[in-house]
Design a protein that fits this description.
globular; 14 helices; single chain; two-stranded antiparallel ribbon
Length: 353
């Protein structure tokens, strides 16, 4: 077991089914202060440097990537800023939490999104609100979402690289430790291994592809349903940053929790992909809407259009990570793996007495 796992997983007991269960140890006050300092620092860095990289002239303008050539030119700078932020957060917090770098970038992007205006600015400017609707704005949102998701995937990969370097290149061995009370498999590491091995998880270091897809599907359905439910009472209310960030993050958090209970996975990758997929499909479905005559021009006809692409990506991924950290139980994952490994024993020809 690594030093990080030793520090985080304190005492172990035996569950009712005979499997070891890890008790979570509360972080000490200095560690908590360090964690909060990293999150605040990430938000401040993107608030200042990220905003400067986009070169936004109008303070009321919504934070977007492809609203002009100056903002689009800032994408490489944002990618570099995301990589540096993810690496720094990972080196500082790797002993206590997995995917700290990815979450730090999500916090930074959320802070950056608050620096500009809400989606109401775009709806009034483009005339796509109220009864007019239209497909142009939702399609632009879908394209931008892919770009923001790319930044978060860069952060996830950098986080995995620095996590592995800090542990001496033994991330896969550590990931199979069923006694750890914190996830040991960064989502970026599982993504690269998944591509390399085409979803084979027989060595116990990777979520089986079928279970991962079921987890993602369940999380996606729950996330979409929760966004719609949370937005029922918001249809005619003005859009605010806190409102849309809460709806996206809370929906992803709750969905990840219940998806893990049903289909336990080894990393937050599947929940992250589910949150991003829901936002993308929501934007694409909004292209089919024709607007609503009973809404003013500053309000969208679809609940998914209330959220800017940067907010859908940042809050969705951040909520998925929070939910995964909260619900993760390595013993539950190991128990779910037993039927798979047990089905291979008869093939050895060994008879039971």
């Amino acid at each position: 077991m690594t030093h990080a796992a030793t520090h985080a997983a304190a005492h172990h007991s035996t569950s009712a089914h005979g499997s070891p269960a890890a008790h979570r140890r509360e972080l000490r006050l200095p560690v908590k202060l360090l964690v909060y300092l990293v999150w605040v620092g990430a938000g401040y860095v993107f608030w200042q440097l990220g905003y400067a990289a986009l070169g936004m002239g109008d303070p009321q303008m919504s934070v977007r990537l492809f609203a002009g050539w100056r903002m689009a030119a800032g994408l490489p700078l944002l990618a570099a800023l995301s990589a540096v932020t993810a690496a720094t957060a990972t080196m500082l917090l790797r002993r206590w939490m997995c995917d700290a770098g990815t979450f730090a970038v999500a916090v930074g992007l959320a802070a950056l999104s608050v620096r500009g205006g809400t989606v109401e600015y775009l709806l009034i400017q483009s005339g796509a609100g109220g009864a007019r609707g239209g497909a142009r704005l939702p399609l632009m949102f879908a394209v931008e979402l892919v770009a923001w998701a790319g930044l978060l995937l860069i952060a996830a990969r950098v986080t995995a690289m620095f996590s592995r370097a800090a542990r001496g290149g033994h991330e896969e061995r550590d990931a199979s430790d069923a006694t750890s009370s914190i996830p040991q498999n960064p989502c970026g590491a599982e993504l690269s291994v998944l591509v390399r091995r085409a979803g084979r998880g027989g060595d116990g270091t990777l979520t089986p592809l079928d279970r991962g897809l079921r987890h993602a599907a369940m999380a996606a359905v729950l996330t979409a349903a929760l966004i719609i439910v949370f937005s029922l009472d918001l249809t005619r209310r003005p859009v605010s940053h806190g409102q849309v960030l809460f709806v996206s993050a809370a929906s992803a958090w709750i969905a990840t929790y219940f998806a893990f209970k049903q289909f336990p996975v080894r990393s937050a990758l599947w929940a992250m992909l589910a949150a991003l997929t829901v936002a993308l499909v929501g934007y694409l479905m909004a292209t089919l809407g024709s607007g609503r005559a009973d809404l003013p021009m500053n309000l969208p006809h679809s609940p998914f259009l209330r959220t800017l692409p940067i907010q859908a990506a940042a809050a969705g991924v951040g909520g998925a990570l929070l939910g995964f950290w909260f619900v993760f139980d390595a013993a539950h994952v190991a128990t779910s793996d037993k039927p798979r490994s047990g089905s291979e024993k008869p093939a050895s020809g060994k008879k039971r007495s």
